[in-house]
Amino acid sequence: MMMHGGGGGMGFNVQGSQERTGGAGSAVKVSDDEILGKAYDHSITMRLARYVLPFKKWVLVTLVAVLLYTGATVAFPLLVKWAIDSYIKPGLITGQGSGLTKVALIFLAVALVHYGSNFVQAVGISKVGQGVLYTLRTQMFNHLQTLSLSFYRRTEVGRIMSRMQNDILQLQETFEIMVMTLADILSLGGIVIMMVILDWKLALVTFSVIPVLFFLMAYWQRFARRSFLRIRRAIALVNGALQENIAGVRVVQSLNRQERNLEHFDALNGEHRDANINATLFAGGVQPLVELLTGISTALVIVIGGWWVVTGSLQVGVLVAFVLFIQRFFDPIRNLTMQYTQLQRSMASGVRIFELLDVQPEVTDKPGAPAMPAIKGHIKFDNVDFAYKPGVLVVQGMNIEVQPGETVALVGPTGAGKTTTVALVSRFYDVTSGRITIDGHDVRDVTRQSLVGQMSMVLQEPFLISATVSENIRYSHIEATDEQVLEAATAVGAHDFIMRLEHGYDTLLRERGSNLSIGQRQLISFARAIVADPRILILDEATANVDTHTEMQIQEALKRILKGRTSLVIAHRLSTIRNAHRIVVLDHGRVMEQGNHLELLRLGGLYAHLYSMNYGDEGVAAELSTHNGATATVAAKPKPSRRPRRNGGSAGVPSPAVGD
C-alpha cells in the first residue's frame, strides 16, 4: 500500500551510496549496485557461514569429494609415468608387458574415483547452495513484510526485487566458486609439489612462463572489471526502462509514445549488447593466452627434457608426466584468475542482501506489549504531531475525537494530511509527539497485530490476488466460513455479480483481478474488509475510481456496513460523505473545521469553498435553501477566487482537488 500526504523520501543515487532519512528519523545506508567490492569480505563470509551450518554434513561430504577429486587429478600423470618407466619401457626392451593389465585396472579405478568424486562434489554444492538460498529467500520475504511503510516510501520496488532475485542467485555462484577455488588451489598445490619431487630443474623450466602469465592477467583484470561494471550499469538501465514502460503502458498508449519509448529502449538495449560483446572480447582473450603459454611451456619442457632424456639424465616417464602436468597446471591458474571478478560480484551481492536484512522496522511492539482488548471504537487524537522527515511536520497539533459507531469523514485540499491521519490510526507510522488512543489504550502500548486485526481498510486501488473470489474475500481471515463469505458479499451488494461469474465464488481471478471491472473489484475489497466484522473501518478514497452507478451501489452498501462501526472516511467526492455524523476539514495537517454537512456549509469556510468548487455557489445556496430556506445572500457570494475564511491556518485559496 502506498501512503500519500507529505514527506517524500530521497531516491537512490546510481553514482554512489547515499543515506536516506525517513519516518522517525531513521537512516538506511544503501550501497551502490555498481560497486563490485572485495574479492573476499570476512564479515560477509562469516555471516554466510551461519546459513551453511545446518548443512554441515553435506559440507563435509563435499570437502571429502574435493580432496578425492584433487588426488585423482594429480594421480593420472603419475600413473602414466609409472606405466612407462615400470612396464612399457622394459617391455620394449624385453618384448614383454605383463604389468600393463594391472596399470589399466588401477587407471580405471582412479578414473571412477575422479568421476564419482566430481559427481558428489556437484551434488554437495547444489544441496548446500540451494538450501542456503531457500533460507535466505524465505527470511528476506518475511523480513520485507515486517518493514514499515516509511521504508517503502524511500525504496524503489525494482531495487528490492533485484536484491531478492539477482543478488540471491549471485550468492549461489559464491558457493560454487568457493568450492571450485578450493579444488583449484589444492590441485595447483599438488601438481607443483609432484613436479618439484619428480624433477625440480624441469619444474623451474615449467614455471618460467608464470611471471608473464600473472602480468598479463593483472593487466586483463583492469579492463575486465571496467567491462563488468559497464554490463551491470547497462542491464540496470534496461530493466528500469522495461519496468517503467510496462507499469505505465496505458499512459504510453494513450499519449502515443510507443515509438519514442522504443527509440529510448533501443539505445539502452544497444549499450547492453555492446557492453556484453566488449566483455566477451576480454574474456575470449584469456583462453588463447593461457593456451599460448601452455604451448610455450610444453615446448620448453619437451626440448630441454627431451635432451636430458637423450643424455640419460631424465626418465622418459618423468618427461611424459611433466607434459601431462603442464595441461593441469595452467587450468587452475586460469580459473582462479577468472573467479576473482566473480568473487567480487558475489561478495558485493552478499553485502547488499545483508544490508537489506539489517534494516530494522521503525514501528515495533514494546517488549511485553499486551494484546488489544475487544475494540468498541472510541478513537482520540491527543495533540498529535507527525513528520516523515525530521522538522517537516505534516500533521500538527491534531485533536480529534471519534465516538464508537460514529462515521467521521476527513476532507481537505491535496496534501492536507488525510491519508497520513488514517495511517497513524492503523499504526503504519508512530506519531512524532502526542498520542492516539483507541478505547483509552495508546496504540503504541499494544501489539500492532492485535490492533489491526480488529480493523479493516479499503483503499482507492483495489488489491486482488490471483486466486478464487472466495479466497480473495478471505484474504486475511482464512478461517472465515462459507456462510460468512456469502454474508459479506451480500452485504456489500457483490453477491449477484459473483453468482453470474462462470464458477461463482470459485471463479479464478487473473492477476490483479483483471477479468473484473474496477467496480466489481472494489466491491470484493469491501466484502474482504467486513468479512471479519471489524470494529473500525477505514475507507481511503474507496469510491474515487468507480463510475456513478457503481458508486450508488457502494453508497447503498455503506449504509448497511457502516452501521454500528466506527468509520473514518476519506472522500474525493463531497457528495459521498454528506450523511457522515461529522466532517473534519484538514489543511496543511491541521484541523480547520468540524461539524456536519449543513453546519459547515453555513459556516462558509474551507468546506463551503471546496463544496462550491464542486457544485458552484448556486449548489451551495440550493443545498442550504433546501434545508432551512437560506436566501440569495449565500447565492450571491463571489466566485471562489477570493480567500476563504478559516478557523486558523495559513491563508490562501486551496487547490480544487480534494484527495490527498
How is this structure best summarized?
The protein is an alpha/beta fold and 660 residues long. It is built from 20 helices and 12 strands.
Shape: elongated
The DSSP helix count reads 20
What's the CATH topology label of the largest domain?
Answer: ABC transporter transmembrane region fold
Strand line-up across the major sheet: 8-9-10-5-11-12
For the termini, the CA-CA separation is: 14 Å
In this structure, how is the largest beta sheet organized?
6 strands, mixed
How many β-strand runs? Answer: 12
Round the mean pLDDT to the nearest integer and report it.
79
CATH first level of the largest domain: which class? Mainly Alpha
Number of domains: 3
* Quaternary organization: single chain
> Mind telling me the CATH superfamily name of the largest domain?
ABC transporter type 1, transmembrane domain
The structural class is alpha/beta
Strand content: 5-15%
Write the CATH architecture name of the largest domain. Answer: Up-down Bundle
Which regions contain 5 or more consecutive residues with pLDDT less than 50?
A: 1-32, 629-660
Give the % helix. Answer: 55-70%
Describe this structure as you would to a colleague.
By secondary structure, this protein is α/β, with parallel strands linked by helices. The protein has three domains: about 30-355, ABC transporter type 1, transmembrane domain (ABC transporter transmembrane region fold, Up-down Bundle), CATH 1.20.1560.10; about 370-455 and about 570-595, P-loop containing nucleotide triphosphate hydrolases (Rossmann fold, 3-Layer(aba) Sandwich); about 595-650, no CATH class. Helix content is about 60%, strand content about 10%. It contains 20 helices and twelve strands. The protein has helices at about 40-50, 55-95, 100-145, 150-155, 155-200, 200-205, 210-245, 250-255, 260-310, 315-355, 420-425, 450, 470-475, 480-490, 495-500, 520-530, 550-560, 595-605, 605-630, 630-635, and strands at about 20, 25-30, 380-390, 390-400, 405-410, 435-440, 440, 455-460, 535-540, 565-570, 580-585, 590-595. Strands 8-9-10-5-11-12 form a six-stranded mixed β-sheet, sandwiched between helices. The protein has a four-stranded antiparallel β-sheet with strand order 4-3-6-7, covered by helices on one side. Helix 2 (about 55-95) packs antiparallel against helix 3 and helix 7 (about 210-245) runs antiparallel to helix 9. The longest helix is centred in the middle third of the chain and has 54 residues, at about 260-310.
